[in-house]
Specification:
With 215 residues, the chain is α+β, with helices and mostly antiparallel strands. 56% of the residues lie in helices and 14% in strands. The strands form 3 sheets. The chain has a 4-stranded antiparallel β-sheet with strand order 5-1-2-6, with no helix packed on it. A two-stranded antiparallel ribbon has the order 3-4. α1 runs antiparallel to α2 and α2 runs antiparallel to α3.
Length: 215
């Protein structure tokens, strides 16, 4: 269920979920930090949060963006407003994302180069009838690391590109694509962390079993 209430600072009409009653929020009309009053009018209409038109007699009118805001039509949730401060923060994020993408591309190239030299060293050992030792592990491990760095760099590059496209066109498709690239980046990072933790657990259990069996 939703509630409709007036901003205590500017009088603008807002709508939010009933669960937000008693909490504080920012009025999209005047940017004041206000509390959702317990006396807010309950209604079963409207989206979970919607900035309503300034006419108190029409609480279900479409959202009205302020100067500098971007109004994006969404077929599922209705109109979504991206405010000017949100756009500035997204624009300020892009240079750092590009910087991290460049760093990861460089790391990918350096690791791939190191893998190549280790591979050549292993071939030289074989030519001298010497069995390669740790080089085998490096030859297997380094290409995997280079591939992971490359995927991370590509996702960050996509994220930065979509942020730039959104800043130029103010289209919701670019913003959605940027958020999807960000989600893919953090999902991959989470998978790697889970795999790393599982490896630590396996090594820990193996060490305990080896110590027990060695007694």
């Amino acid at each position: 269920m939703s509630v409709v209430f007036a901003c205590s600072s500017c009088g603008g009409q807002l709508q939010t979920s009933e669960a937000a009653v008693g909490r504080r929020t920012t009025c999209p009309h005047c940017r004041a930090n206000i509390a959702v009053p317990a006396s807010a009018l309950r209604t079963t209409h409207g989206s979970p949060f919607q900035v309503l038109a300034g006419d108190p007699g029409d609480p279900y009118a479409p959202p009205q963006p302020l100067a500098g805001d971007v109004s994006i039509a969404d077929p599922e949730s209705g109109t979504v407003i991206v405010t000017e401060p949100m756009r500035r923060e997204l624009a300020a994020t892009r240079p750092w994302v590009l910087f991290m993408a460049v760093v990861m591309w460089l790391a990918c190239g350096l690791i791939a180069m190191a893998s190549f030299f280790v591979f050549m060293a292993a071939l030289m050992s074989l030519s001298r009838n010497q069995a390669p030792g740790a080089e085998i592990l490096v030859i297997v491990f380094y290409p995997v690391m280079a591939a992971l760095y490359g995927v991370f760099a590509w996702l960050l590059q996509q994220y930065a590109g979509n942020l730039g496209a959104f800043g130029r066109s103010n289209r919701g498709e670019e913003l959605l694509a940027a958020l999807r690239s960000q989600k893919s980046f953090w999902r991959l990072a989470g998978i790697i962390v889970i795999a790393y933790l599982c490896l630590i657990v396996v090594v820990f259990i193996g060490a305990i079993l080896w110590a027990v069996l060695s007694m």
